[in-house]
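User: My collaborator sent over this chain with a note saying "see what the structure looks like." That's all I know about it. Can you take a look?
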Amino acid sequence: MTDPSRTEDGSAGDADYGVIGTTYSDFRRPDPRIASLVRNALGDARTVLNVGAGAGSYEPVDLEVTAVEPSASMRAQRPSHLAAAIDAVAESLPFADATFDAAMTTFSVHQWSDLDAGLAEVRRVTRGPVAILTCDPDLLDRFWLAEYAPDVIDTERRRYPAISRFASALGGTVTVEPVPIPFDCTDGFNEAYYGRPEALLDAGARAACSAWSFVDPTTSTEYAHRLRNALDSGEWDRRHGALRRMTTFEGSLVLVRALP
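Assistant: Without extra context I'll predict from the sequence alone. Here is the result:
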């Protein structure tokens, strides 16, 4: 039976990666500095579950990783050195209790149709730490894009779950660590371009950030023109030019770690 909550591509959240995910891996390459933080959060685990694994970003190559990804287009973009991903969703994981030493999910929880059910499933199948790379919706206004593309930031604020929900759903000991975003970050989420605003003039870069897909094409184009005009006139640099000289930016990106 077809799950009505999933698209033809299999995407299980509110975004259709069959449409927006076809060139995702061209712009969303894991940043090694962020990857190191995720790897450290997994501790001494040997077996790891990666939920909403996408094209395999941040999967530790030195561990035994089982990847779960509902989108067919994203599964197809996984590189050959990674194991094939299982077609499943967070809310119904096809594994026995306490199967894995640790679990991880990166830039995925805002896509889940039922966050509490998904987190309960992740905790059910995981003996040890759960590492979640996500964004804190209360910190999104730190990023200048709110001035030039307010609907994009409003979309992210609506979609990203409050950080307090992770503690209540996972229980145990939960820590939240801010993740500094490097100036030359290779993972092209919106805030990765904090000091390189010209990059967001590329329609492909915008498409790789799912929040842009919730803005109608006319408005999205208007936002790009607004940013281009601000750059051409020097307005952006007068207001935000100091960001071009910052080696890192502390925005909304956080790493949540839950121990049972």
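A starting point for your reply to your collaborator: The mean pLDDT is 92.
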